[in-house]
């Protein structure tokens, strides 16, 4: 595989962009080597600057659920551009988008559009604090909610220990208001709540985690959180930036039949354009300015190009429930095939899977939280990543990222993915 152009671009980029990339995971640091620079994509394929072709299983970290450059979305963007790129004023499409989101997501009664998933989670936390009059939040180890200060906090040494800043620039004051618990551990959450009685404004989590690899909630975990938050007057926030409209039309909350108080969205709602949203119970959302006192604003919020792309994407998903059946089948074929390969090769690696999300963990321990995810053999995953890349399969360049499937994958693609997996795993063993 020739990568001369990508190598040259990365060398140039490092002179002008921190680390040569505009988002850290793209730098390939956890898998070794240098990043591949992408030139174009269509359907199930991406192409790099050296014209290498790959079947890809990232789909821009989730939004390309119908494959890259889906024609109706392209057409919607072209039509919207004719009317200018941005107005900074209300548009008809914003109203239609809000109505569609509320129709599709069980818990949302009002919604506010923003520009990214990070912006959505930051705003949701602020609204929860404003609504409750409390300061502290609870988050979970390994759940990533963007790069807001409140979310860059590592766990302390015990279940009721305050967090410590996990990144320079995050103040101790912010850390003191952020409590961290292990995922899938209701008892730890109860201890935090008991130790901080009437001080916790919100509990935020990914209902299915995508940022320590794909990690599913244990049976009863989400319902337990719902019950606890209801009892204690805590705002339950589902970060469905990844899972929203992917695991079902109504996201993970529809799939698990659990209603949060607030939901954050992104990825798919923009059809690939930069966009986010947060919404939930009317009484909470009515706290948001200009209706209420909690301030949040954005010049490009509800951008007409992003709204056109997202509305077209969501409309298709809403009108074609067979998409989710197809994705379930594709995911089951790939994961089932990999399990057979692992058994054939005598490897006891773990696979977590739900719908069109999955992760192969290079560990023999069940992965149910961040601590168990960290037992993975990271160097071995790096060798596997490059073995797959050399066979034309583009994976997430990190053990701790979920993979996302699209409807563009055919049975022929699935066969190619499985053939590459068998050859790559044999190479890794050797």
Describe the overall structure.
The protein has 14 helices and 16 strands. The chain is α/β, with parallel strands linked by helices and 430 residues long. Strands 4-12-11-10-9-5-8 form a seven-stranded mixed beta sheet, with helices on both faces. α3 packs parallel to α10. It is globular.
Short synopsis of the structure:
With 430 residues, the protein is α/β, with parallel strands linked by helices.
| Main pleated sheet | 7 strands, mixed
Rg on CA atoms, Å: 21 Å
- Averaging pLDDT over every residue, what do you get? 94
- The poorly predicted ranges are 155-163
Helicity, as a percent range: 25-40%
Distance between the termini: 21 Å
Strand order of the largest sheet: 4-12-11-10-9-5-8
């Amino acid at each position: 595989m020739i990568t001369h152009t990508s190598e040259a671009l990365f060398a140039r980029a490092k002179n002008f962009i921190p680390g040569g990339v505009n988002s850290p995971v793209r730098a390939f640091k956890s898998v070794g080597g240098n990043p591949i620079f992408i030139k174009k994509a269509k359907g199930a394929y991406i192409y790099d600057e050296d014209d290498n072709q790959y079947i890809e299983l990232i789909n821009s970290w989730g939004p390309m659920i119908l494959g890259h450059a889906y024609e109706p979305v392209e057409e919607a963007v072209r039509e919207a551009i004719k009317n200018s790129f941005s107005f900074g004023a209300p548009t008809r499409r914003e109203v239609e988008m809000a109505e569609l989101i509320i129709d599709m997501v069980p818990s949302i009664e009002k919604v506010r559009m923003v520009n990214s998933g990070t912006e959505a989670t930051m705003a949701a936390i602020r609204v929860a604090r404003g609504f409750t009059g409390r300061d502290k939040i609870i988050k979970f180890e390994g759940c990533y909610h963007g790069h807001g200060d409140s979310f860059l906090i590592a766990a302390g040494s015990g279940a009721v220990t305050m967090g410590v800043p996990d990144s320079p620039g995050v103040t101790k004051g912010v850390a003191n208001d952020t409590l961290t618990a292990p995922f899938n551990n209701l008892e730890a959450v109860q201890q935090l709540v008991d130790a901080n009685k009437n001080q916790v404004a919100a509990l935020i989590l990914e209902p299915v985690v995508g940022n320590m690899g794909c990690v599913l909630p244990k049976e009863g975990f989400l319902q337990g959180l719902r019950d606890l938050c209801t009892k204690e007057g805590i705002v339950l926030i589902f970060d469905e930036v990844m899972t929203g409209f992917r695991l079902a039309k109504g996201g993970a909350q529809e799939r698990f039949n659990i209603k949060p108080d607030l939901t954050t969205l992104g990825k798919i709602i923009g059809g690939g354009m930069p966009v986010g949203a947060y919404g939930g119970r009317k009484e909470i959302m009515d706290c948001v300015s200009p209706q209420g006192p909690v301030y949040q604003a954005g010049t490009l919020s509800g951008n007409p190009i992003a709204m056109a792309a997202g509305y077209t994407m969501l409309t298709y998903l809403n009108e074609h429930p067979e998409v989710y059946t197809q994705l379930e089948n594709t995911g089951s074929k790939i994961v089932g095939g990999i399990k057979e390969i692992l058994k054939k090769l005598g490897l006891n690696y773990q696979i977590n899977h739900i719908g069109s999300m999955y992760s192969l963990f290079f560990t023999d321990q069940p992965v149910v939280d961040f601590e168990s995810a960290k037992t993975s053999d990271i160097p071995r995953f790096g060798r596997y990543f490059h073995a797959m890349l050399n066979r034309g399969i583009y994976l997430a360049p990190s053990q701790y990222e979920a993979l996302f499937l699209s409807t563009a994958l055919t049975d022929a693609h699935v066969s190619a993915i499985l053939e590459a997996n068998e050859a790559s795993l044999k190479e890794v063993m050797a």
